[in-house]
Design brief:
By secondary structure, the chain is of the alpha/beta class. It folds into two domains: about 250 residues, 3-Layer(aba) Sandwich (Peroxisomal Thiolase, Chain A, domain 1); about 150 residues, Peroxisomal Thiolase, Chain A, domain 1, CATH 3.40.47.10. It is about 30% helix and about 20% strand. It contains twelve helices and 15 strands. Strands 1, 2, 5, 6, 7, 8, 9, 10, 11, 14 and 15 form an eleven-stranded mixed sheet that branches. Helix 2 runs parallel beside helix 5. The radius of gyration is 20 Å and the shape is globular. The chain starts with 6 loop residues before the first strand and ends in a 5-residue tail after the last strand.
Length: about 425
Amino acid sequence: MIKRNRVVVTGIGVLAPNGTGLTAFWESLCQGRSGVGPITLFDASAFRSRIAGEVKGFDPVDYIDPEMKPRRMARHTQLAYAATMMALKDADLNLENLELPSPTPVVIGVSTSALDVIERVFHDVTERSPDRVSPTALGASKPQAAANLIADKLGSCANAATISSACPSGLDAIAIAAEMIRSGEAEIAIAGGADAPITPLAMASFTATGLSSLRNAEPEKASRPFDLTRDSGVISEGAGVFVIENLERAEARGARVYLEISGYASQRDFDPAQPASGLEHSMQLALANASRCPGHVDYISAYGPGHPFLDAMETKIIKRVFGKHAWSIPVSSIKGVTGNPLAAGGPFQLIACALTMRDNLISPTANYETADPACDLDIVPNHARRGVVDCALINVRGLGGSASTLVVERVRPE
């Protein structure tokens, strides 16, 4: 039989609207303290939706050598690199003397790419002159810029790949890297997701599509997963990056292990007239791939973007997949606090699951005030809850009908 390696998370880096670093991120989740506020990255006064989840106090020079000209990079590239440096440090890997095996995959999920750079170039061409465009703009605007920059830091051992599958991109990137370790192709990998969609073009587009809340007067309460009065999600930005390893390697070097990645599946909707139908099959397949049944799951980290239709559909599908178990499993969405950071959303959920297992504390669904009969599961409203979670399921769905599910577990002896 072919040996299948066990895959574990040993390092985490996060920059999110609700906090940079694990401590700030986790405290805000458990307290239900939202990171959503008025847009400051550009003048949004003429926009119908003027709120978003911005990463606060971020200066790329704090994480990137000034000689690398970080301010010329796209914001999502800056965030991804910063999160990677945090993850390597958290994994107790020496940043100045990285001795990584070859190959070391770097797999980064990106949804909207370098919109800030692209919009800046367009402005230079139309308002100034085509000759005023920076020579660094082409490289900075490529979708693979983030993965390439990280791989450059790691050196010749690294192989870079970029995944773009809408909101599931970050979760898909982690799953792809995990499979490389599981199959023996690699021993260790860097994987995660990053997005920085808070630009004029992106926000106007999300608003026109009905995917950005208009609750401008109370931004901190605008993202309201599963609440009856929800009007839409709130767009946000951020990055979540992980060091993942073969369990044997992690144990041999004495690494702290957060959790094990045991199952994954992705599935597009079968019919555009049945939005979220793919999520049902991604959940079923991910459980099967993890050799788990619905009764084994202790917690569901819902996609739950705060959209009137999508929240209700996810609830309905969870009931179909989990049957009688659906009402006894805690199901919460962290997007009331983080907003929807697109490709970083799945990584944020994975981080929450890792810290849930560490602390035996389930993060709540924030801003839940009015019950919706269509969302009648145990959504852990407003207050964190003590509970032992040995197996968790993570859902992410994306614009265009893609859906991905990851099953993670507390590491147990073989």
